[in-house]
Every structure is written in structure tokens, then in C-alpha cells.
Amino acid sequence: MKMSLLILDDSLNDIKKTSEVIKKYYPDIRIYQAQNTKDAQHILNTTHINIIISDIILTDEPINGDQFIKKIIKQFPHLTIIFQSEVIDKDFRLNLHEDVEYLSYITKNDSLNKEKLRIKIARAIDIYLETTHKKIIFTCNSSTLSVNPNDLIYVKTTEKRNVLEVCYFNNISKKTRKELVYGLSLKNILQLPNVTKNNLIKVQQSWLINPIVIRRIDHSLEELYLIYDDIEVPIGREYRKDIRNTLDYLIQGWV
Question: Is the pLDDT of residue 164 over 70?
């Protein structure tokens, strides 16, 4: 998957300078630009963005860059944030950190700005790769199961309380495997490290499914079909909108 980066800045000149650094050191990164929050929101809604470099003070905008990031990070929690600004007030940065978790804050008028930006983007790429390749660890009462997020197919409840069935693709045997894990609920699974909507999404009370194995969803969004074994899973009404949003978002990353 090719990485994509969004630059949000009301200064076209600053956007150009930032783009030049990225193109020079990271030519494989797709760059998107926005001079206002409306355009930025549209890009985020329609494109798979991994990193966002945002100005703090946005002239003629109803909200500033940090307020916009605070808003959209709830919608796109995977984003790695880098702030750039002419503001150098340390108290401002401290208050910002309390509201938004971000990778770095770089002042625009810093003579080392380009080098700092290069280093921070390198770190953002590392974070992305670390997250992509980290495994999900199912630690239960009697054993521990380790699965690559991309190999997960589904997790579902069984007839027994707190006994789950985990289905995944085994790269050694080249076959799917089903393992039972004990003492965990679906709620517990969603709280595990490295579990995100990109690798497990709830489609009904009893099922979590990896979005990448969804083969087809019928037009009424009442059933979906997995790549493996032609499994048909009915979709709970309360989860339909979330499923559609997740799939729309991931499709942008597969293009």
C-alpha cells in the first residue's frame, strides 16, 4: 500500500516548501494539499491518508488547525500528526499536547526546519510500518495465540460463554485455521493492542470480521460474504453505517 500524506496550511508558499522536502526525500509518498479545513475534510473522507502535516493558525477559518485535528482524529484515529506553525509559545504546545496526541511540533521559521521535517516524516513512516506488521496477541486462560492482522479472517462467539473462535490464514500450511480462545469477549478483543477498524470490525453482536476478506455486500446491506469458504454473515442494522464508512475508507488505500 502506497503511503499518502496531507498538508493543511493556508499558505500556498508553505505548502510548496513542505512538498519539496517530501518529494526530495520520500518520492513514493502521495501528497495531497488543502488550504482550508473544508478541503482537508473532503480529502480525508475520500482518500486513504496516513500522515497529516497541519498548520496551527489558519487565517479566515472558523477553527484553528489544532481544533480541526482534535475533531477529525476521532474519525480517523490511525492518523499520524505533525504540526507546523510560526507559534513558538511553549505553553501553547503544552496545552496542545493535552488535547491531541501528535508526533512532532516544528516551527516554520526554524533554520533546521527541513531537516527536522525529514526526520519526523521518517519516524511517521516507521510508526506506520510498525503498526502494519505488529501481531495481535490473544492471551487467554490456557494459551496464547499470535496472529498477523492481515491474516485474520474473523473472530466470533460460540455457544459457550467467553469462548471465542478465531479464524485466520496460516502462511505455513497455506490453509485457514480455527482456534478457540477462552476467557475473552468480543469487547476484550476490540481493546487488544494493534486491533483497529482496519483489521477487525463488528458486523453484529456475535461477529468481528477483517474488512479485507469481505468479498461482497448485498445492496440492502443485510448480508456480507467472506473470501474464504463462501461464509455468509448477516449484518446488524446498527453496524451498517460504520461498515460502509470503513470499507469506503479502505478502498482508497487499496487503489
Answer: yes
